[in-house]
Structures are given as structure tokens and as C-alpha cells.
Amino acid sequence: MNHNLSDKESLVKRASYLRLLASGLSEGMKSGNFKSLYRGQGIEFSGVRDYIPGDDDIRSIDWNVTARMGRPYVKVFEEERELQVFILVDSSASMQIKTEDKRTKYTAAAESAALLILAAEMSNCPIGGVFFDGAIHFSCKPTFGKEQTMLMLSHLDKLPEHKVNGSVLGPALTGAGKLLKKRSLVFVLSDFRSGEYEKPLIQLAQKNDIVAIRIQDKMDDELPSLGTVNFVDVESGLKMQLPSSSAKLKKQWSDYMDRNENQWKNLCLKHGITTALLRNNDDPLRILSSILLRKK
Fold first, then answer.
1. Using CA atoms, how far apart are residues 172 and 133, in angstroms rounded to an integer?
2. What is d(CA 228, CA 8) in angstroms, rounded to the nearest whole number?
3. Do the bridges between strand 3-4 and strand 158-159 make them parallel or antiparallel, or are there none, so unpaired?
4. Is there a contact between 74 and 49 (Cβ–Cβ < 8 Å)?
């Protein structure tokens, strides 16, 4: 039986509410920091899609298709499809550790991904993604429409029945590069606790605009005092006993986390990758809005 998010937190069941929240993000995608990605080769007709009341101009309705199908459709031109959005979501073991507030990094990542997926649909942007832990469990090429939205939300709701240790962030980034045939806006939602992801990230950034969102929790800032604790590296399975109340260990922990974060930031800065920090108890909408609307 799959380990799903609780019904209360089901992204599919909350889609209507999340869609309201995502409306502002949709505007950000079209007019914010990454609007240059919309530039294309003109307005060549490329197909039709469902008419969205309140969003679409009635003059864009394709009356022939509407009459044939029995519900309104609008013409889609290539410039509407010019911005492709792609999302990589990490569900590895380190993303699923529960802190005091019972909210995991993965919960924050999944909610953020859901908002981006809905915003892309509302902007008529093709959306695709790769979801992974120690293996890739879901991947799809960018396409657009409500069916694609619900497919991706349902997979975000489901955590793999058989978890695979480790994180295949590097191969996931490489796989994204193979799926993307034109320049896209790529979001990477992960705590970046993975080895050998740097080269694939750099290669993906050479052909795409990347937003790297680092998910953090309290333990990334400070090691809690719990006495002698059995530590387990959830990615490698390595076990050891350590005195969590030790001032020396706390400082080593803090220094390591700071060094790791700074290395990540410097790597991204050097290669033109937009960065953001998202804590597991942050409001994902606020963080995503700041990314899409921030001024360079």
C-alpha cells in the first residue's frame, strides 16, 4: 500500500483552493523575472485548448471546433506555448524526516510544486517533471492541459511504496536535459543532500533557466540537544552514536551545514542559477512569488 499524504493534505483534493493561490504566480510567470523566455519566432497557429471563462478573449474562440465538440475551444498560437516549465522534486529519505511541527521538507516541496503546476496550467504553459528519491519514480515531457495537471498532482501525493536509499538528483537532472527540447524554466526542489549533482546541474543550466530551491528545516540550522543519539545517514544507511548535547559537535554540525549551503550558493551564482531557501514551515506561495517577481 502506498504511503500517501493524508487526505487533509491531498494536493488533488486541494486543487481548487491551490488554483486560487496560484493565480498570482501565473501572472508572475507571464510578466516577471523570466518573461524573456516567451520570446519566440512569431505567432504560428499550433492547436486548440479548452476556453477558460474570465481569462480568455471571446474573440479567440475557434467556432468550428466549438460547434463540433459541443463546448468552447480557443485557438492556441506558438507564442502562448513558448514558456515551458519543468519541475524536479526530491522525495528522498532526508526530505521526509519529521521535525517538531510534523511537517517534512517533502511536504513543503510538494506544495510548492503543486502551485507551480497550477500556475503553469493557468498561463497555458506546457509543464513536465521528474520525481525521484534513490530512483526516478515519475517523469513526463512538458505538455499542457488539466489532464497533465491532475496526473502530476496525483504523483506528488503518492510516495513510492518501495523506497530506494540515496538520492539520484544528478541522474534526474541529466534526464531532464534529455526530455527538454527547447529552453525552459526549470525548478529544482531539493535539500541537495546528494553527491555528484554539480556537473549535471551546470549542464542543464547552459540550455535552460534554472531556479534551485533549497528546502531546509530546523536541524539544518542547529543540532537539538537529545543526549547520546544513534545517528543514521538516511541516504547511505551509515550508523553511529554521537553526543548531541556536545558544544563541539553542535559547532561542527553548524559549520558543516553553513559550508555546504555556501558551496551550493556559490556554484549556482557562478552559473547563472537563481537560488532560494524554503524552510519546511515557510509559506511556499510567498517564496515562489518572490522568485518570480524579484528584480534582477
1. 9
2. 36
3. antiparallel
4. yes
The number of C-alpha atoms within 13 Å of 208 and in the hemisphere containing its C-beta is: 28
pTM of the model: 0.77
Per-residue pLDDT reduced to its tens digit, 43-64: 556 688 888 887 788 888 999 9
Torsion, CA 113, CA 188, CA 108, CA 223, rounded to 10: 180
Q: Are 191 and 43 in contact (CB under 8 A)?
A: no
3-state secondary structure at position 155:
helix
Cα dist. 43→73, 122, 145, 180 in Å?
18, 19, 20, 21
Residue 78: pLDDT above 70?
Answer: no
Report the amino acid identity of residue 181.
K
Query: What cell numbers appear for 17 in the block?
Result: 483552493
CA–CA distance, 17 with 72 (Å, rounded to integer):
24
Spell out where the chain has E strands: 3-4, 45-50, 73-77, 85-90, 127-132, 136-143, 158-159, 185-190, 209-216, 228-232, 239-243, 274-279
Provide the residue type at 92 as one letter.
S
User: Can you count the helices (H) and strands (E) in the chain?
Assistant: 8, 12
Residue indicated by cell numbers 558544544: 247
Could you tell me which of 8, 10, 7, 1 has the C-alpha nearest to residue 157?
10
